[in-house]
Design goal:
CPA3_antiporter_subunitC, cell membrane, mainly alpha, Multisubunit potassium/proton antiporter, PhaC subunit, transmembrane, Helix Hairpins, about 0% strand, elongated, 3 helices, transmembrane helix
C-alpha cells in the first residue's frame, strides 16, 4: 500500500510541475492545484492509518499513539484544503480579468509567433 501511495504522490507531483511549466494560465492553475493535492496526500500519509481503531478514547482509558492515528496531519490537510480552494478561486478570478484585459491567456500576455 505504501508503494501505491508513494507512486500516486510522485505522479501527481510530476504532473503538477509539468503543468506549471506550460505557457497558458489555466494550465498553471491546474498544475498548482495538482501540486497542492500531492502535498496534502503526502502530509496525510505521514500521519499513518489505523484500520479498526477507535477514533476516540474510551472512558478511563489513556491515549497511546501506537493504537491511534495522529490528528495533527489530518488537521493540517483540512486547513490546506480550505486555503487551496480559496487560492484557486482567487487565481481563476485573476485569470478571467487578465484574459479580459489582454485578450490572451498566455502567461507573458502575448501569443507565440509561428516559426
Amino acid at each position: 500500500m505504501e508503494l501505491v501511495v508513494a507512486l500516486a504522490i510522485g505522479v501527481m507531483t510530476g504532473s503538477g510541475l509539468w503543468l506549471l511549466l506550460r505557457p497558458r494560465t489555466f494550465q498553471l492553475i491546474a498544475g498548482l492545484s495538482l501540486l497542492s493535492y500531492a502535498v496534502n496526500l503526502f502530509i496525510f500519509a505521514t500521519g499513518g492509518l489505523r484500520v479498526g481503531a477507535a477514533p476516540i478514547l474510551a472512558k478511563g482509558e489513556t491515549g497511546d499513539l501506537a493504537r491511534h492515528a495522529d490528528p495533527l496531519p489530518q488537521a493540517l490537510v483540512l486547513t490546506a484544503i480550505v486555503i487551496a480552494f480559496a487560492t484557486t478561486a482567487l487565481l481563476l478570478v485573476v485569470l478571467l480579468a487578465a484574459r479580459g484585459l489582454t485578450g490572451t491567456d498566455h502567461v507573458d500576455g502575448r501569443e507565440r509567433e509561428p516559426s
